[in-house]
Amino acid sequence: MAINRAFIFLGPPGAGKGTQAKRIAKLSGVPHLSTGDMMRDAVSRGTDLGKVVGPIMQRGELVSDELVMKMIEERLAQPDCAAGCLFDGFPRTLPQAEGLDRILDSKGFGKPVVVDLSVGEEKLLRRLTGRRTCSVGGEIYNVYDAPPKVDGICDNDGGKLVQRADDTAEVVRQRLAAYDRATKPLTEYYRRQGVLHVVDASASMDEVSRALGEIVKRAEGRNGHL
């Protein structure tokens, strides 16, 4: 498969955007892009934008939309994006979506193919509040759906399993509410453009991957490229 324009994953925290984005990007042979990775790459390469963004990130402050869009424009100009790219968790707001549309159009990508990974709130709460990470090797478990053999201990290296501070029930509900306010309206924005596909991300990882693969195939069949 080959993606010849931008592919975008939308979905709330816990929907599996990162995991599925890596799978589909590898399958399609295009870069998996996240704004965090782009910023860190620009800083490490010492680009002009990287020199501006670096101190902002070090202070723990939010990078402005203007700088983020410049970063994306710079990243899309790199040769590995010539055949397309896959955005993970971006855009997050309507202004970012509108800005991204302008950049994609200017670079000849046309309209993006957008997938909304849809999961109910109770399922998301179960996924996120049950998540535990090994303090040694970083392996991820879920106390409800994929528990370790010994409670609180990693199967592989015996490391202690810890819960992220933002995975408590109270914080998760706040994160989901923030998503609903800022990002969920994007589904309507892309639906009006006729580029939105909705996938039930409460299914198993492999089932979701198969659904995404079918979307890629159908898009290729419709217009010769994605």
Q: Please, what is the average pLDDT?
A: 89
Task: Kindly state the number of beta strands.
Answer: 8
CATH architecture descriptor name: 3-Layer(aba) Sandwich
Beta-strand residue percentage? 5-15%
Spatial gap, N to C terminus: 9 Å
Order of helices and strands: EHEHHHEHEHEEEHHEH
Fourth CATH level, the homologous superfamily: P-loop containing nucleotide triphosphate hydrolases
> How many domains make up the 3D coordinates?
1
Description of the structure:
This protein has 226 residues and is α/β, with parallel strands linked by helices. It has a single domain (6-30, 83-223), classed as Rossmann fold (3-Layer(aba) Sandwich), CATH 3.40.50. It is 49% helix and 14% strand. It has nine helices and eight strands. It has helices at 17-28, 35-45, 48-58, 65-76, 94-106, 121-129, 169-182, 185-193, 205-223, and strands spanning 6-10, 32-33, 85-88, 113-118, 131-134, 140-142, 161-162, 196-200. The strands form two sheets. It has a five-stranded parallel β-sheet. It has a three-stranded antiparallel β-sheet with strand order 6-5-7. A hairpin with a 5-residue loop joins strand 5 and strand 6 (140-142). Helix 2 packs across helix 3 (48-58) and helix 4 runs parallel beside helix 5 (94-106). The termini are close together. Residues 222-226 have low confidence and may be disordered.
Keywords:
226 residues; 8 strands; disordered C terminus; five-stranded parallel beta sheet; Rossmann fold; alpha/beta; single chain; three-stranded antiparallel beta sheet
Explain briefly what this protein structure is.
The protein is α/β, with parallel strands linked by helices.
